[in-house]
Amino acid sequence: MRLTLGDFARSAEARLDPAIWDFFEGGAGEERTLAANAQAFDRWWLRPSVLRGADRPETAVKILGRAWDLPVGIAPVAFHTLAHPLGEIATARGTAALGSVPLVVSTFAGRRIEEVAAQRGDVPLWLQVYCLRDRSITRSLIERAENAGFEALVLTVDAPHLGRRLRDLRNDFRLPADVGPANLAGDGFRVPAAHARAEFDPGLDWSVVDWLRSVSALPVLVKGILTGADAALAIGAGVDGIVVSNHGGRQLDGVPGTLDVLPEIADAVAGRVPLLLDGGVRRGRDVLAALALGADAVLVGRPVLHGLAVGGAEGVTDLLTILLDELTDAMSLCGLRTLADITPDLVRPVTSWP
Length: 354
Ligand code: FNR
Known about the structure:
8-stranded parallel sheet, oxidoreductase, binds ligand FNR, alpha/beta, two-stranded antiparallel sheet, 13 helices, FMN_HAD
C-alpha cells in the first residue's frame, strides 16, 4: 500500500533501471546538499492552535494572478520519458485530474511542448529556460511555448554547466536510444553533462532578464537563488518571481538546504514578488513549514518521477492526492482554515526546545 511519497519512491526504485534511478535520485559531489534539503524540514516543529473550527481547510493560493488549487507545483525535471513512455504528457494529464496544479516543463522535456499543452486542462504551464549559446534556439522554444499557451518563463540560473554528479560519472550514464529532448534539434545529448558543457551559455549575467523581456511578454521567474543578496539583484533586474532552489542538490554540493536559506531570502524579497521553494518537499507538513518561513508555494521534483514510474498519469494524480491529503490533515490539526492563516509563529526550531 502506498500511503506516503516515500512509499512511491520505494516502488519506483524497484521498477526502474538502476542507472536511471541514480540519474533521478543523485546529487552532486558527496550529496551533502541533497541530504540537507530533506534534513532542513526536520529542524522545525509545528505549533498548532486548537478550537479554530478548521475542519475543512482551504488550500487555494494565487500566484501571478492565477489560482492554484494547492500551494504545490511541479518543478522542471528533464526527460519524464525516462520514467514513463508518455513522459510529460502523462504528467500534464495526472496533474490536470487534480485541477489547477502548475507544471513547469523543462527545456529538456521528453515530449513536445505542444503535445503537453493539449493535455493541460486547468493546469498553468510554465516553461523552464536554459539559455543556450545559440540564442535563436532558446528564442524559438520560448515563442513556441507562448503560442501553445504557456503562462510564464522560469530561467534556471544555477547551471552554467551541470554539477559533478558522481553516480552518473561512475555509471557512465547515457540516455537510452528512445529518450531525448523532444523540443531541441540536433544530437550529442546522450551524455547530459557533456551536452550542457557544449550548449549552455556559461557567461550569463543579469542582463539576460532584459533579453528574455525583449523576446517574450511572459512573466519571468528565476530559479536557483540561494542568498538574500542575489534575491535583491533579481528584483532589481525586474523579475516577476523567485524560486529558492539548489537544483535538488545536483549543482553545487556544499550549499545549505533550501529551507535553511528561505528566511534570509524572504526578508530580502519582502513580499514584492512571489517566492517559491523547491528541494526535499516530501510531506504535507513540509509545505506548511516552507509557507511559515516565507514561501508562497513550493515545487516538487523527484516525487513526480516516482509517480510516473509507478503508474503514469494515474500515479502522478495518486501521489499529488497524498500530498494534498497530508496538507489538509496538517492544516486542520494546526487550526489553519486557509493558507492566509499561516504566520511565522506556526513553526519553531527544534533546537529552541531542550
Ligand atoms: C532536475 N531539475 C531541473 N531543474 C531545471 O531547472 N531544469 C531541468 O531540466 C531539471 N532537470 C532535473 C532532472 C532531474 C532528474 C531532477 C531530479 C531534477 C531540478 C528540479 O527542478 C528541482 O530543483 C529539484 O528536483 C527539486 O528538488 P526535489 O523535489 O527533487 O527534492
